[in-house]
């Protein structure tokens, strides 16, 4: 079986979120995300036409050669709904932290961990060497749920391991 390409060059027309519904101005760009994007999708990108760029290499370039927009990543919607639908988990090692440091960094650490889980979900190569375990405690989502998008990346059951617990018991 031939694997699908990781990147497909495509012409994309985007509209900034700030101008949705108020302007018909579309910005053309070329992107490596052609294998992921469809009409109406949301993407993350950098608007270089409005950026203040101070770089010696960019100063040497012809301004017509610098793209107006650089697309970085496809957005898959509401993060809260996605995290509730996640039927897998990672095993974590207990960590010891200073109490004062733990309280100040706790929210940032939770956000970083959630972004890490999303990256694992979206990239099969990224999760190749990570042990992902089936989460039996998750409430299953109804099949006819209208909030579930078809193109949201998911970790397949074949990639998950059954959770293993090792007990120190002497018989």
UniProtKB/TrEMBL annotation:
Pfam families attached to this UniProt entry: OB_NMD3
Pinpoint the 60S ribosomal export protein NMD3 OB-fold domain residues: 7-74
Please indicate which superkingdom the organism of origin belongs to. Eukaryota
What GO biological process terms are annotated to this protein in UniProt? ribosomal large subunit export from nucleus
Q: Which GO terms describe its cellular component?
A: cytoplasm; nucleus
Q: Which GO terms describe its molecular function?
A: ribosomal large subunit binding
- What protein name does the entry list? 60S ribosomal export protein NMD3
Q: Which organism is it from?
A: Geodia barretti (Barrett's horny sponge)
């Amino acid at each position: 079986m031939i694997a699908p390409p990781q990147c497909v060059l495509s012409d994309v027309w985007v509209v900034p979120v700030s101008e949705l519904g108020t302007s018909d101005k579309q910005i053309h760009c070329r992107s490596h995300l052609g294998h992921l994007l469809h009409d109406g999708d949301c993407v993350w990108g950098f608007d270089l036409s409005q950026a203040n760029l101070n770089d010696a290499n960019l100063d040497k370039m012809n301004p017509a050669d610098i793209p107006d927009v650089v697309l970085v990543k496809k957005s898959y919607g509401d993060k809260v709904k996605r995290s509730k639908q996640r039927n897998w988990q990672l095993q974590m090692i207990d960590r010891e932290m200073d109490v004062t440091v733990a309280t100040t960094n706790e929210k940032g650490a939770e956000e970083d961990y959630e972004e890490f889980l999303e990256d694992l979900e979206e990239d099969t190569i990224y999760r190749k060497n990570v042990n992902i375990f089936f989460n039996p405690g998750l409430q299953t989502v109804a099949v006819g749920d209208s909030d579930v998008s078809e193109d949201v990346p998911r970790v397949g059951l074949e990639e998950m391991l059954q959770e293993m617990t090792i007990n120190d018991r002497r018989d």
